[in-house]
Amino acid sequence: MIEDAKTSAFLQLRRKLKATAQGLLLNREDAEDALQELFIRVWQRGNEDSSTEQKRAFLFTSLRNICIDMLRKRSKSAATDGAEVADRLVCHGGIGGVEGNDAIGEFRKSVRRRLNGVVLHVFELYSFEQLDYAEIAERLGITVEASRSYMCRARKVMKDECDRLLK
Question: Considering the entire predicted model, what is its pTM?
């Protein structure tokens, strides 16, 4: 009985919580992971005397925080991968010291400005999660041709930025 009392609000709002997580993370598997983390927090919290509104607020606030943490981790790994690419460019381009750090920072900023929205998301799914075009299309609700087109745009941006940096 105690277990049911702890999780009843979670179970009642599960669909809305999942939709919220998918809207924030744009990824079904990540949304499921966020819900599992939320369930653990609900279980650990165990405040039985909270009102329905307080339970609902706790669930959605906690879910938002979990999603933000996941997005931060994702962007840190993307930044790390971008840094590795930039480091390779700097080493091969013969740029060193402060000038090299400036070039890396400029490279990152420029790529982030030019790769945004769906193009950036397709690039991340292809490069970091190693999904193929069909999987990307399914995950984002676009056609396979669109996913190829977005990846082509991302490659062109990366190539242009690398060429510009190496000049």
Answer: 0.47
